[in-house]
Amino acid sequence: MAYDEHLAERIRDEVGDLPGLSAKRMFGGVAYVLLVNMLVGVTGDHINARVGPDAADGCLALPGTRVFDLTGRVMRGWVVVDGEVLDEDSGLSDWIGRAREFVETLPPK
């Protein structure tokens, strides 16, 4: 599956100066990893955001979101955010912020 390279570039622009950030190909797209913990990934025209188990239900109540179900098994603490939501003025920044808030609490692996 191809992924939206423009969306991936927007994410790079948003988080590119974070120390410990790297990009890796996974899930048929690209994932952005912060201090060895995945932050967000681009698959198709949407992102997969790691928001944590405590925030996931609240995030799933927001428009344009759904569970992250990669193999028939729901990935707990993750949400998929549709591309239309990310096109809004602060949509992408908001979702990256939610993911970053959680990921920065995780210990390095």
Describe the fold and architecture.
The protein is an alpha+beta fold and 109 residues long. It has one domain (5-103): Aspartate Aminotransferase, domain 1 (Alpha-Beta Complex). The protein contains four helices and six strands, in the order αββββαββαα. The protein has helices at 5-15, 53-60, 83-86, 91-103, and strands at residues 21-26, 29-34, 37-43, 46-50, 65-69, 74-81. Strands 1-2-3-4-6-5 form a six-stranded antiparallel β-sheet. Strand 5 and strand 6 form a beta hairpin. The chain is globular and about 30 Å long. The protein starts with a helix and ends in a 6-residue tail after the last helix. The relative contact order is 0.20. The mean pLDDT is 91.
Q: Beta fraction of the residues? A: 25-35%
Number of domains: 1
Report strand order across the widest sheet: 1-2-3-4-6-5
Q: Summarize model confidence as the mean pLDDT.
A: 91
Q: Over the alpha carbons, how many angstroms does the gyration radius reach?
A: 13 Å
What is the 3D form?
globular
**Strand tally, please?**
6
Q: How would a textbook summarize the main sheet?
A: 6 strands, antiparallel
Proportion in helices: 25-40%
CATH class group: Alpha Beta
Do you know the CATH topology? Answer: Aspartate Aminotransferase, domain 1
Structural class, from secondary structure content? alpha+beta
Helix and strand run: HEEEEHEEHH
Report how far apart the termini are: 29 Å
Low-pLDDT sequence parts = none
CATH architecture: Alpha-Beta Complex
Number of helices: 4
